[in-house]
Write a structure and sequence with these properties.
The complex is a heterodimer of chains A (232) and B (299). With 232 residues, chain A is of the alpha/beta class. Chain A is built from eight helices and ten strands. Chain B folds into two domains: 3-55 and 165-294, no CATH class; 61-157, 2-Layer Sandwich (Alpha-Beta Plaits), CATH 3.30.70.3040. The model of chain B has no long low-confidence stretch (mean pLDDT 80). Classes of the chains: A alpha/beta (232), B alpha+beta (299). At the A-B interface, helix 2 and helix 3 of A face helix 1 and helix 7 of B.
Chain lengths: 232, 299
Amino acid sequence: MIQMFHVTKAYPGDPPVLVDINLDIDKGEFVFLTGPSGAGKSTLLKLMFLAERATRGQILLAGRNVARLRESGIPYLRRNIGVVFQDFKLLPTRTVAENVGFTLDVLGTPRDEVRERSVKMLRRVGLEHKADVSPLKLSGGEQQRVSLCRALVNDPALLLADEPTGNLDPALTVEMMDLLTDVNARGTTIVVATHDATLIERYQRRTLRLEKGTLVADERGAKAARLMSQSA
Amino acid sequence: MSAPAKLGYFVRTAVGSIVRSPFVHVIAVASLTLALLGFGVARLARAQLDALTDALGGEVELTVYLAADADAAQVDSLSAALAQRTGGAVTRVSPAEALGRLVTQLGDDGRGLSALPDNPLPWSLELTLPRGAREPSLLAALAEKTRALPFVTGVDYGEEALERLTLISRALEVASLVVFSLVFLTAVIVVSATLQLAIFSRREEIEIQKLVGATDRFVRVPFMLEGALQGVVAAGLALASVGALVRWLEGAGSEVLAFARLGSGLAVDWPRLAGELLGAGVGLGLLGSFIAVRRFLRV
């Protein structure tokens, strides 16, 4: 699903944010991306949904070479990628249901269907009763879940989540992770950037660890959990 | 998505945006209205100047004096030849008519002329020229050619007055061109800056649309619809303001018109002005939105 070959990302005048990254994430995988703050996790995610372009190296998304993709082709690729942003990026001028349906609006889904699917998605995260209120009236955790609903409502092939449990209490974290596991079980490839060592230990999925822009570890299962406990 | 469904979405988005943040739209409409008002007033002024030039130009004519021995048939043939050659209107002035006019013009001093045994004045032709032929150089050439015709003894066409009128007309043309350019440039700058301000408050919405896979066109269309709608409203307001100005000039401000030799009424082609304001408003709204939204599309 995602392949990176010697990918480097640098901004003019600054040291590189990512250095010589090589990775291969298969279709249907569930991958944690971890590392300390400033390690380059968010930048790596941005490269995956084309909010940034690599300075050097090649990126293949679903077999397509991103470097050869024209600007006009980017929207069509993004329609297969759901993104949960660290700062949620919810529109305060729209209702919760309208925020969720935003992705479907862009795809040209009929109005009634947008509403129906948005409410159905909100029901899965227990927020159906908040469909018609402003996101400003929701708690941080609720906003996080609305953001996840917006990313998932379109059944994307790839879901990228930047600290999706960062604002949730332990019970909601489990709920959120169960939801992501369920989505993954239906075939969606998931990449979750997180600091949360307990999350990695508990779910024992493939874990990529970044430090100072370099990929320093790529472990699976129990080894991944050990990796986290060592670095913690 | 079917075309009507897509149009429905665009219209809903545009109207929703106006309802959600009316203030920024009021500012955009106000700036568009001012720009269009400038355009409308400049257009109105230009129409009055054209009418004034036409009125003054109507007095320009060529007087052709004929030899004393020219008879009525020769006068007729010369008259027809001049009308055909210039496309103008020819009035034949008989010696008796010319003497009558002279006596009237001189008043008491001319009383003695009526006592003359023979009328010394010849036949003459007064040629009123069409607008395009009023150029001093063209008139000079025409006068030269006319002088060479048989039985023509002299040609008079008020050379100095005509040159002055042409100079004024050209100056007015240049001035109106400068005014138009300034109004247009100001309008584009003000309108796109205002719309950019309005769109700036919605940059996050654009960013999210782009991140969830919207094409540039999909993002742009509702903004352009808003711009067009603002243009329509602004055109209506500008037209109403120009109407109010015209009513004032024709009523309370009639001394101004009298001073400008425009009589009691103004020359206004309302359907044309309405069409131009509507076209300019919609055009400015569309162009301004297109330019303003462009810088926010790079996500």
